[in-house]
Design a protein that fits this description.
Strand 2 and strand 3 form a beta hairpin. This protein is of the alpha+beta class.
Length: 102
């Protein structure tokens, strides 16, 4: 679970273009780490990214003043713990050495 201090209603999320906010863990630890970046795509799909993974908000499980719980398409992983998603591809595989005939 990722908790933010602000109430973000479904209508508010859909009205955003881009928005970045700290999670409660950032505030408690006094750090600028653990941010969520909210984006609204051309299809009006609300997406959240941590820098490691991008998820699509599938819908609200619960949304009343002060509390909103959303279903997302994947688990959000913090970049500070799991690194960037910009991992270079592995080097190409080498061919095995030719067999010696003896």
């Amino acid at each position: 679970a990722h908790i933010v201090r602000e109430y973000l209603s479904p209508d508010f999320l859909r009205a955003l273009n881009t928005y970045s906010l700290p999670t409660l863990a950032s505030e408690i630890m006094g750090t600028s780490m653990y941010h969520l970046n909210i984006l609204v795509g051309g299809t009006s799909a609300v997406k959240i990214t941590t820098g490691v993974v991008e998820v699509v908000v599938k819908g609200a499980v619960y949304s009343e003043y002060l509390i909103a719980i959303y279903v997302v398409s994947k688990v959000l992983l913090p970049i500070e713990m799991f690194g960037s998603s910009d991992v270079p591809p592995p080097p190409p595989c080498r061919s095995p050495p030719p067999l010696r005939s003896g």
